[in-house]
Structure formats: structure tokens, C-alpha cells
């Protein structure tokens, strides 16, 4: 889970600093993969091959909004319903974050870092392992990490 502090100016021209939380569960990742032909890896490959800015922006938006939620006070729930997402999507804080992840020379690195940090800890560990083995393409690494996790889950399910 990523706790991100965003400094922004709201629509009343007030400077604000606020904490926001982002997390993609394995279910969220499966849903995102199902939304694209070839999964996220296929989507990113298509974007890179065609230099499709419209698809890139939509994919970033899909991922950020799928990851956004609010932690319950007792920490037992991460609430990601339509109302929570909509409130964030139409905020100045979202505009600031989206701009950070999509513009500037280091936007790709910032988005890649964001994506890694919102993943479950075990998937993050798989990514670190893949990077240590010299793999550098985030979509490829994420796809492999999810395959490894799916295989581990099947083994776990069989042993029950």
C-alpha cells in the first residue's frame, strides 16, 4: 500500500497537503488485466509500439483510480467504492497526481515507481527478484510476478 502525500491548491484557491492511499489487490490486477487485450503487458506493449498517448493516459487513469481508496480508521478495510473514487477523481489532488505521473521527462519513472508501490508486498518481492535478475521492463516484470503468484496460489489450493 502506498501512502502518498499530495500538496495541491483546491478549487477555493487554498493550499492543502493531504494523505492519499493507493493499493491494487491481486483481484484488482486480474480485473485490470481482463480489461485489456493481452492484459496490462499487452496494453503497455501496444502503447509503446504505437506511441498511443490517448491509450497511455487512459491506462494511467484506470490504474490510479483502481488503486485509490480510503483506509478505515481501524485499518481492517480499504474502501474503494464508486463514491470514494469519484470524489478523488474530481479533486484538484487527483489532477496534481495525474500530471505528475504523465508529464515531464521523468514521468515514466514516476509512474513505474507508483505502480510498484501500490502492489501487494509479495508481488513487490517478485518484482525486486526479477529486477535483480536483470529484467527491466515493468509490464514484463509485473506479468511474470503475477504468473508466479498464480502458480503459488494453485499449489496452495491443491494442498487444501
Verbal overview:
The chain is an alpha+beta fold and 160 residues long. The chain has one domain. It is built from eight helices and four strands; from the N terminus they run ββαααββααααα. It has a four-stranded antiparallel beta sheet with strand order 1-2-3-4. β3 and β4 form a beta hairpin. α7 crosses α8. The chain is globular. The chain starts with a strand and ends with a helix.
Keywords for this entry:
160 residues; alpha+beta; 4-stranded antiparallel sheet; 4 strands; 14% strand
Provide a short characterization of the protein structure.
It is built from eight helices and four strands; from the N terminus they run ββαααββααααα. The protein has helices spanning 26-34, 39-50, 53-67, 82-89, 92-102, 107-117, 121-132, 138-158, and strands spanning 2-9, 15-22, 68-71, 78-79.
What is the secondary structure topology, with strand pairs?
Blueprint: E1 2-9, E2 15-22, H1 26-34, H2 39-50, H3 53-67, E3 68-71, E4 78-79, H4 82-89, H5 92-102, H6 107-117, H7 121-132, H8 138-158
Helix pairs in contact: 2-8, 7-8
Q: Judging from the principal axes of the Cα atoms, what is the shape? A: globular
> Share of helix among residues?
55-70%
User: How far do the termini sit from each other?
Assistant: 29 Å
Order of strands across the main sheet: 1-2-3-4
- Count of strand segments: 4
Major β-sheet profile: 4 strands, antiparallel
Number of domains: 1
Mean pLDDT: 86
Mind telling me the C-alpha Rg? 17 Å
Query: Which structural category do the helix and sheet elements fall into?
Result: alpha+beta
Low-confidence stretches: 152-160
| Count of alpha and pi helical runs | 8
The succession of helices and strands, N to C, reads EEHHHEEHHHHH
Q: Strand share of the residues?
A: 5-15%
Amino acid at each position: 500500500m502506498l501512502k502518498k502525500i499530495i500538496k495541491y491548491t483546491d478549487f477555493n484557491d487554498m493550499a492543502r497537503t493531504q494523505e492519499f492511499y493507493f493499493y491494487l489487490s491481486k483481484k484488482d490486477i486480474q480485473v485490470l488485466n481482463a480489461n485489456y487485450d493481452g492484459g496490462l503487458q499487452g496494453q503497455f506493449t501496444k502503447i509503446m509500439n504505437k506511441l498511443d498517448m490517448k491509450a497511455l493516459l487512459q491506462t494511467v487513469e484506470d490504474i490510479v483510480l483502481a488503486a485509490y481508496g480510503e483506509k478505515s480508521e481501524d485499518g481492517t478495510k480499504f474502501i474503494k467504492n464508486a463514491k470514494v473514487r469519484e470524489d478523488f477523481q474530481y479533486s484538484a489532488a487527483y489532477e496534481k497526481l495525474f500530471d505528475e505521473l504523465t508529464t515531464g521527462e521523468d514521468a515514466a519513472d514516476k509512474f513505474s515507481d507508483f505502480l510498484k508501490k501500490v502492489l501487494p508486498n509479495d508481488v513487490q518481492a517478485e518484482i525486486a527478484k526479477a529486477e535483480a535478475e536483470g529484467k527491466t521492463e515493468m509490464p514484463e516484470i509485473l506479468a511474470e510476478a503475477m504468473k508466479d503468484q498464480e502458480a503459488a496460489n494453485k499449489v496452495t489450493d491443491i494442498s487444501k
